[in-house]
Amino acid sequence: MTEKSTKEELVREGDIAADYLDEFLTIAGIEGDIVMDVEGDRAIVAIVDGELEQLVGKRGEVVAALQELSRLAVTSETGSRSRLTLDIGGYREKKRIELAEIGTKAANKANQTGEPVKLRAMNAYERKIVHDAIALVGAGSESEGEEPNRFIVVTPQV
Questions:
Q1: pLDDT of residue 157
Q2: DSSP 3-state helix, strand, coil percentages of the chain (rounded to 5)?
Q3: 129 with 100: CB under 8 angstroms?
Q4: How far apart are CA 149 and CA 50, in angstroms?
Q5: Can you say how many angstroms the Cα of residue 94 is from the centroid of all Cα atoms in its chain?
Q6: How far is Cα 64 from Cα 19, in angstroms, rounded to an integer?
Q7: Residue 3 carries which DSSP code?
Q8: Who contacts 116 (Cβ-Cβ below 8 Å, separation ≥6)?
Q9: 3-state secondary structure (DSSP) of residue 137
Q10: For each of the chain's 158 residues, which pLDDT tens digit applies?
Q11: Which residue in 85, 83, 96, 3 sits closest to 36, CA to CA?
């Protein structure tokens, strides 16, 4: 898919992923409804309304794995790499809010103390959300370290 995927292509990605996930839920014997949307340049698929904790995992490992499998199903069908996002039981939205709060608090602390603030290691998705929140407060940030121990250092605004 091109960088600027058309809405029609993104809806198709969502449909393919929804079919894949619907079959997965049936095989696993798990109840849940599938909702699709398009936000910006990616398809969003969510599994809602069910006992979904087992599909999230301790730190979102299961939802991340299912997202990758869904992306592979889309890629297999379309021949193009997918940037589809999967949310299960509102996990990603709750996590996004939590990460934005971490970024905001760290930025405020850095601005108040004038000292850099180091955050815990995070994956790329988490770091992006935190960097965005820090920027909204007006502080600076950069990622340091090597995966999987890459972390953010927040610097006070100048």
A1: 87
A2: 50, 20, 30
A3: yes
A4: 34
A5: 11
A6: 18
A7: S
A8: 110, 153, 154, 155, 156
A9: helix
A10: 444 569 999 999 999 999 999 999 999 999 999 999 999 889 999 999 888 888 998 888 899 999 999 999 999 999 999 999 999 999 988 999 999 999 999 999 999 999 999 999 998 889 999 999 999 999 999 999 999 899 999 999 86
A11: 85
Closest CA to 38 of 67, 77, 60, 9: 9
pLDDT given at position 3: 44
Task: Classify 89 as helix, strand or coil.
Answer: coil
User: What does the alpha-carbon distance between residue 116 and residue 151 come to, in Å, rounded to a whole number?
Assistant: 13
Token readout for 25 is: 């839920």
Structure tokens at 76: 């297999």
Domains in the chain, please, with CATH? 7-89 (3.30.300.20), 94-155 (3.30.1370.50)
**Which residues touch 3 (CB under 8 Å, ≥6 apart)?**
41
Which pair of structure tokens corresponds to residue 123? 């994956």
Residue 35: exposed, middle, or buried by beta-carbon count in 10 A (0-12, 13-18, 19+)? middle
Q: Which two tokens stand for residue 35?
A: 């909702």
